[in-house]
Amino acid sequence: MTPKQTIPNDLLPPLSAGVVVVRRFPEGWRCLVLRAYRNWDFPKGLVEPDEAPRDAARREAWEETSLSDLRFDWGDEYKETLPYAGGKVARYYLAESPADPVVLPLSEELGRPEHDEFRWVSFKAAEDVLPPRLAIVLDWARGMVESVAD
Predict the structure, then answer these.
(1) How far is CA 43 from CA 40, 95, 148, in A?
(2) Secondary structure string (H, E, C) spanning 46-109
(3) In the chain, helix, strand, coil percent, each to 5?
(4) 48-99: per-residue pLDDT in tens?
(5) Residue 56, class by beta-carbon neighbours within 10 Å (0-12 exposed, 13-18 middle, 19+ buried)?
(6) Could you tell me how many helices (H) and strands (E) the chain has, helices first?
(7) Is the pLDDT of residue 25 over 50?
């Protein structure tokens, strides 16, 4: 048996963790997208040392949107982006937020909210605003949500 080799943490690419937040509206499922300057994304941020990625995803969603009612009904499954921006990888989980209002709180570090705008959009509309690197994540989330019986 070959011993398992591990890569030292300082040689791994930086990992961000985020959440594709979905909500059921009368017109169907919508996902939450956030805009910072001209860039749209899902809530996400860097995983801190000794923090589990899903815990970081939950923390980042709360810090960026004030959503505290996230339900990870799809479990621990996730989808990662290809490396971007200096080799960083973003890992996204899927969660439903049934009721909490979205608030873009002030970031103490920035002195303003991290994001300029949020929208609840259909998966089709998300294709038009999200960058191409998130297409694989969006398709995965759509498939997971559509697999749930209405």
Answers:
(1) 10, 11, 23
(2) ECCCCCCHHHHHHHHHHHHHCCCCCECCCCCCEEECCCECCCEEEEEEEEECCCCCCCCCEECC
(3) 25, 35, 40
(4) 999 999 999 999 999 999 999 999 999 999 999 999 888 899 999 999 999 8
(5) buried
(6) 3, 9
(7) yes
